Amino acid sequence: MQIMDFLNPKAISTDLEATEKKGIIKELLDLLIKSSDINSKDKDNILDVIMEREALGSTGIGLGIGIPHGKSANVKNLVAAFGISRKGVAFDSLDGEPVYIFFLLLAPQDTAGPHLKALARISRLLKEKYFRDMLVKASDPKDVLRIIKDEDQKKQ
Amino acid sequence: MIIKRKVKIGNRQGLHARPAAIFVQIANKFSSDIVISKGDQKVNGKSIMGIMMLAAECGSIVYITASGDDAHEAVEELEKLLSGNIDELNNKV
Fold first, then answer.
1. How confident is the model at residue A48 (pLDDT cuts 50, 70, 90)?
2. What is the span of the domain harbouring residue B26?
3. Is B46 within the bounds of a domain?
4. Mean pLDDT value of segment A108-128
């Protein structure tokens, strides 16, 4: 599985503006609406699902990374949105640090496999400090796309 | 002291983000180095991203290796965690 298999190039932003968790998740869902991965009428419902997951324990997993996620009957395949916050956002992270890099994942109901593989793929990319630094500095979505595509081809 | 143990993943949804976070929280209580391996992949048992990289599904086999003074206790506790249903725990992680 490659990241570009589940990340639509239209669902990438390097200018997330919100300053708190819910706002960031809304912006990431707007990206999925823009890329036609979800319907705007389902946004509130999906937002609730993702916020409920956050209430179980933050998906701010440390090192400036957040992977908010959830399952929804409104998607047929696993889809993702990617966003950068230049200023960083308080996200109740496990290491207490602000989050700069966001990968939002939305999976269909009753499927664990693709979700696990996507998490593995994202982890492999983001555990390298070099890639995290490059992504945070990316000038625009095209730049992000180039960085992710390069990495996708290198590691399988 | 180095202790290695084979474990079958019991969590129905596999080792997704939350089980990985809970695992790491427990692993970090111990001073021993902890390595988890699956197939030819070896990762740091104290790193959430390391554990998520394994994409360990329910029923898959992993090995926990702990090395250090508290290796025995670490392996005991982590084995129990991985073989059980982590999603039903109430830990807020």
1. very high
2. 2-85
3. yes
4. 91
Indicate the length of chain B as a whole number: 93
For residue B39, being part of any structural domain is answered with yes
- What would the two tokens of residue A143 be? 């730049």
What average pLDDT does the segment A8-32 reach? 98
- Identity of the residue in B17, B49, B92 whose CB atom sits nearest the CB atom of A59: B17
Contact status of A96 with chain B (Cβ, < 8 Å): no
**Which tokens in the block code for residue B25?**
């929280």
Is pLDDT above 60 for B93?
no
DSSP A78-132: -EEEEEEEEEEE----TTS--EEEEEEEEE-TT--HHHHHHHHHHHHHHTSHHHH
Report residue B1's pLDDT band, with 50, 70 and 90 as the boundaries: very high
CATH superfamily of A3-154: Mannitol-specific EII; Chain A (3.40.930.10)
